[in-house]
Design a protein that fits this description.
Blueprint: H1 2-13, H2 18-26, H3 41-49, E1 56-59, H4 75-82, E2 87-93, E3 96-107, E4 110-119, E5 122-130, H5 135-149, E6 159-163, E7 169-174, E8 179-184, H6 189-220
Parallel strand pairs: 1-6
Antiparallel strand pairs: 2-3, 3-4, 4-5, 5-8, 6-7, 7-8
Length: 221
């Protein structure tokens, strides 16, 4: 029966669809795809919603874009243009069906993973991650990124934000094991609304956690 459902779900919705992955989930099976992001989505998106004041933020007059990717892109157009992905996540977060689609590329023999994030088919974020780079390579990536968006000379920095006039942001993070460059794209009205709703939902969850902790502490004391 499951194989029959799998066949028709794949036929009607496609293999790289929320419905296809959800079918496996409903039958208590693991997703048939490699995950693009291993962390919880709330943690992934929080770096944008709850920016750490310890990280420096630069402002740019340039418009931040994720490569040449148009903001109007949807997941089917992406797959039809680039091809079958290397990794794929599909899940529900709050009221949004989220798809995370990733591809492996190489730049001068350096492995790179590019990731595209869609919420209800709205393109809201992208990421380039490098896992096979040394400190010199990491500094080179940082230097090229800053040179594109910031005219002034900047000293090496392991973690920083770049913000444009539309409040799109780039977060550069070198944690010593991986260099990640995340693009949070909030210019479009639909994306702006999604980020606003995600922000309210995540802050509400944090408030509930704080209330629970305070209640337990009150009982203890």
């Amino acid at each position: 029966m499951f194989k029959l459902k799998m066949f028709f779900t794949k036929l009607f919705y496609g293999e790289y669809s929320f419905q296809y992955v959800d079918l496996f989930r409903k039958h208590s099976f693991r997703s048939p795809f490699t995950r693009c992001i291993s962390e919880e989505f709330s943690a992934y998106i929080q770096i944008f919603l709850k920016k750490n004041s310890n990280f420096k933020e630069f402002e740019t007059s340039e418009t931040i874009t994720f490569g040449n990717t148009p903001l109007s892109l949807n997941s089917n157009e992406l797959i039809n243009t680039i091809g079958l992905p290397f990794c794929f996540n599909a899940f529900v977060f709050e009221e949004y069906k989220v798809k995370v689609i990733g591809y492996q590329e190489y730049i001068q023999n350096t492995k790179l993973k590019s990731v595209y994030v869609f919420a209800n088919e709205v393109f809201i974020a992208g990421e380039y991650s490098f896992t096979e780079v040394n400190k010199t390579d990491a500094h080179s990536i940082s230097k090229v990124l800053l040179k594109k968006y910031i005219s002034e000379s900047i000293e090496n920095n392991d973690k920083f934000f770049i913000k444009d006039k539309d409040k799109n942001r780039i977060f550069f993070n070198d944690n010593g094991f991986e260099v990640s460059v995340k693009y949070f794209l909030s210019k479009e009205a639909n994306a702006k609304e999604i980020y606003s709703n995600l922000s309210k939902a995540i802050f509400k969850l944090d408030d509930q956690k704080i209330d629970t902790i305070e209640s337990k502490l009150a009982d203890m004391f």
